[in-house]
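Attaching the record inline, Q. Sequence:
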Amino acid sequence: MGENITATYLEQFRSAVADHPGVLPVTGAQRRFLTIRRLARDVPPLLVPLYFRFPRGAVDPDLLRAAAARLAARHPVLRTRFDTAADLPVQRLTEPRGAVHRVTAGPGETTDGALRRALRSWSPDGPPLRLFLAAAEAEPELETLAVVVDHAACDEQSLGLITEGLGRAYRERTDPREVLAATGASDAEAYRDAVERQLAVERAASGPGSLAHWAGRLAELVPTGVAARRAAADPGRADAVAGLLRYRRPAPAEEAGIALFPAVLGATAAAVTAVTGVAGAAGAPGGATPSVGYPWGGRPPGAAPVLGCFLNTVLCVAPCGADPDDLTDRWWDDLDHADTPLDEVLRLARLRGPARHALFDALVAQEDATRRPPLELGGVEGLETHREALALQTPLAVAVTRGATDLLVRLGWQPGLVDRAAAHSGFDALRSTLAAHLDRSPDPCAPAP
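Structure, as predicted:
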């Protein structure tokens, strides 16, 4: 048996599945997504949606369907079916398909409501990429195109490939079968190679040195109690629409004294602290230390820039009130061990007791929209919009999108786990702490005026 989770998975795959035609292993992130899906059937699949507004009638559903099929022919992960073989999570290559669904809002229903209804019915058996064209009577001249990808097939680096590739494929008239015949075998081999390289990186990062680092971080963690609310929650609320607050602020200058992402981590920790009402300062008697998770990744060294899911969820133990420079140093130390699969960190957490089993108080996502080409279909550029999330993985979630001149900052929360008043307190702390970190103002945990 292998010396860690990744090694064990690889040994079992190679002995029982590797000779199955068209069957590929999964990355650590994919393995986790699929295991959760299999064991927690009441939790909807985790999806990555992008929303674009177009003039009504500007998008041709038939052309869009063909374009999605062409895109899937070029990117193996978009024509995989996530499955099990010999009781192992795997991905099976299938024929490319384009899935476009018309969504019409009912009487009194908004476009947002109609899209939420459509996404709730998402079946894991369909293609990983699906497109939804939604319209409502209240907006007679507009419709919204939702480009939705199963998270097991997509990370942030993939989004630009999808928007750019979908627009290009919309202009083409090549039969998807011709695309597949021309480059399908080489594309599949490049994708398999990237997955195997990713697994090799994860296996190497599961050794004693990395595990000792994460054991040290877990030893620092004093649970706030927020994460435990998720474990005790009513499963029937798993699909409740998340609350959402948002604001914009100027993007930091390049010469800012602290990197943007650790500033966001510190601000998220302050939001958790405000929600719980716990002092949370490092070393405070009876204080608690927020735990924040964030996706981090990139293609493994030597791999082709394929579309797929090559990320990990990394633990950040971020005491509210930590000096910004100290927080940055801690973050850099964590990045040295960021390839350790989350499954390994969770195994360490379980050994330390149930209070640390529900690990994350909040999740943070950051994206740079300036690196993502706009979605242009038939000469019309869609206006990207942001909608409320259908469900969250943690009680709180923070998303930061960097535009050309500003940051869009959003705080989401799970109804039933966090009440609205507490969420607003967390939002105030998020705003004031982010400003303090980015502008290097004093007292980063001071409440907003």
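The longest helix spans residues 176-204. The radius of gyration is 22 Å.

More tomorrow.
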